Amino acid sequence: MKRLLALLATGASVVGLTVLAGPPAQAATGCSAEYTITSQWAGGFQAGVKVTNLGDPVSDWTLGFTMPDTGQKVVQGWNATWSQSGSAVTAAGVDWNRTLATGASTNLGFVGSFTGSNPAPTSFSLNGVACTGSVTDPTDPPTDPPATGTPTDVNGQLHVCGVHLCNQYDRPIQLRGMSTHGIQWFGSCYGDASLDALADDWKSDLLRVAMYVQEDGYETDPDGFTRQVNRLVDMAEARGMYALIDFHTLTPGDPNYNLDRAKTFFSSVAARNADKKNVIYEIANEPNGVSWAAVKNYAEQVIPVIRAADPDAVVIVGTRGWSSLGVSDGSNESEVVNNPVNAANIMYAFHFYAASHKDNYRATVSRAASQLPLFVSEFGTVSATGGGAVDRASSIAWLDLLDQLKISYANWTFSDADEGSAAFKPGTCNGSDFSSSAVLTESGALLKNRISTADNFPTS
Ligand code: IDC
What does pTM read for this prediction? Predict the structure, then answer.
């Protein structure tokens, strides 16, 4: 229903039915293409194209279409390799969506510019065959009645089911939310007003609590930081959000350096929060300069400490190479697949920064997602420094991929740090306005837009 309204509101075109023709020996072909303008401004617009393969499976595809007005140009696209020659636009599949089974769809998008009018493109084709088919989307209208209540009300105690995160009805869900910045620096960003905005305006499912261990963090005042974390767990719980307790190791990169601290910290927070349903534990933010074997050893010592106090909570394990599943160290997910952590009800962390980590990282995630339970417990829309410009195309490609794979995520950061990854403009946390668009950065506006859409969590 929501999509139909969007179509009506934007005058999108859905193109009619194809008759499959041709000699019997040939592969059956056919497709539908659904074009939607998602926003438009003076001279520019953002559009999406949902392509559905109605023929035999394809292992490689190129979508073609025609821009009716000479001023219409694709400026920057995602989820495909885009090019334009005159009025002819082509979009070729990328690693993770190149294969399309019969009936399978993929969502592409682009930012465009125009000079005169901005009519919908025409003559959509897939691998040269006109897209004249139509499809009934089985999820539209949704088959589940819309859930009412907060994310924790609806989903209750979570657990890992196969490669997914499942709710109390044993159905896969995706949590979408935000990470704090270092709570030792940005405590003023986490009060009642900002967390109300996160829960009510952003409709966030999740607050990740980033408790640095070094850099003036936990090691300087274990009791004080433990109390701060518990306070944020309670504040998230009161607003119906999950709380991800992040033991934010970063430098040094070997989590074993903090093994004793981790045991002390997790035995305390796990005992204190054992009866809560909203807690997820992340035991090592970003192992780096260390082998997977060392990370696994750390995990197999810390997880039993958590389980002894809180047996049913989901635990997230960091991966090698700054939680890149090893990719940033020249490895890949196979080291984890071949040598998994010996524990149940766990997921593996994957982190990315959209301006630094692109197609080869996305290819890894799409491959690994069918073998390992993944949780994107931290990502940024900018470069891996946490600063620089928002890479819109890469960020949207990532978020679309995570939505498609139902991978949960937390964005770095829900803070007013003076860096591109922060959601709020500098100085915001000294004030009381966390809701107006005036306090949002480009990254904040993008994430609020994505996170605040309906979750449609399954309820049976
Ligand atoms: C960055 C912060 C920055 C801070 C720096 C060092 O954005 O203000 O000075 O840490 O503490 C990560 C880390 C995360 C980084 C972030 C951006 O988990 O702590 O935050 N990043 O560099 N991994 C990849 C990127």
Answer: 0.79
Cα(154)–Cα(137) distance, integer angstroms: 25
CATH number at residue 403: 3.20.20.80
Domain that holds residue 125: 2-130
Q: What is the mean pLDDT of residues 327-354?
A: 98
Q: 173 and 75 in one domain?
A: no
Whether residue 197 sits in one domain with residue 284: yes
Express each pLDDT in 224-237 by its tens digit: 999 999 999 999 99
Of the residues 96, 130, 164, the one at which a domain ends = 130
The SS3 assignment for 302 reads helix
The answer on pLDDT for 16 being more than 70 is no
Domain boundary, last residue among 97, 130, 163: 130
Distance of CA 222 to the CA centre of its chain: 31
Catalytic residues: 286, 378
CA of 194 to the centre of ligand 1 (A): 21
**Residue 279 Cβ contacting ligand 1 at under 6 Å:** no
Given a cut of 90, is residue 140 above it in pLDDT?
no
Q: Where do we find the tokens 């829900």?
A: 414
**Distance of CA 221 from the midpoint of ligand 1 (Å):** 21
Greatest mean pLDDT among 12-26, 130-144, 401-415 lies in: 401-415
Q: Which atom of ligand 1 is nearest to the CA of 413?
A: 7
Residue owning the nearest CA to atom 12 of ligand 1: 384
In a domain, 440, yes or no: yes
Q: Is the pLDDT of residue 25 over 90?
A: no
| Angle between helix 442-451 and helix 392-405 axes, rounded to 10 deg | 20
Give the whole-angstrom CA distance, residue 178 versus residue 157: 20
> What separation in Å is there between the alpha carbon of 439 and the centre of ligand 1?
22
Are the CB atoms for 293 and 248 separated by under 8 Å?
Answer: no
**Residue whose CA is closest, atom 3 of ligand 1?**
386
pLDDT at 287 over 50: yes
pLDDT at 276 over 80: yes
- Pick the residue with more confidence: 181 or 39? 181
Residues 106 and 159 placed together within one structural domain of the fold: no
**Relative to the CA of 210, which ligand 1 atom is closest?**
19
Does the C-beta of 416 come closer than 6 Å to ligand 1? Answer: no
Q: How far is CA 85 from the centre of its chain?
A: 33
